[in-house]
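seq as requested:
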Amino acid sequence: MAGPSPTLRPPRHDDIVPYTEFLADPEVAVWLDDSAQVPLSAARVEAILFRDAWCLWAIECDGTFAGVTSLYHPDLVRGIARYSIVIGDRTRWGQGVGAAVTQQVTEYGFATLGLRKIEADVLEPDTAARAMLKRAGFAEDGRLRKDAWRRGQWVDRFLFSLLHEEWRQRNQA
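struct tokens:
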């Protein structure tokens, strides 16, 4: 059985309202960046999608907007960027969409942009995201203890990275 085949495309203005709604969902936002822990206005979401991003794509599944992924905070002198993914459509969770998107974005980062390393971080309780990054070849680099306040307690942040040569080795056929 074939896995999911999400499409990455440029964001559109009709993504603003559903993305704002995704970010307002406590089950989606809880493991995101601290800035997503307060309600974001449609104007702020528009800025995220169209002005603040370096490499940002909308995730589409079966013709429906499902979330956003990006490479951000580029350090092109060092050949590094950070990776993020938000699958806001909870009906898509657990279907392999994250793994498929991660493969597409890392390929773009390494093969097209020529990055040397892609970094990511995940809060401790988000075991699905940690497992997905590990399956994609990311190595766990470390842990920032009690780094974020979520659901009434301090939680650890796990740091991950994938090096170009590790990605190339995994993708040689």
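DSSP finds six helices and seven strands in the chain.
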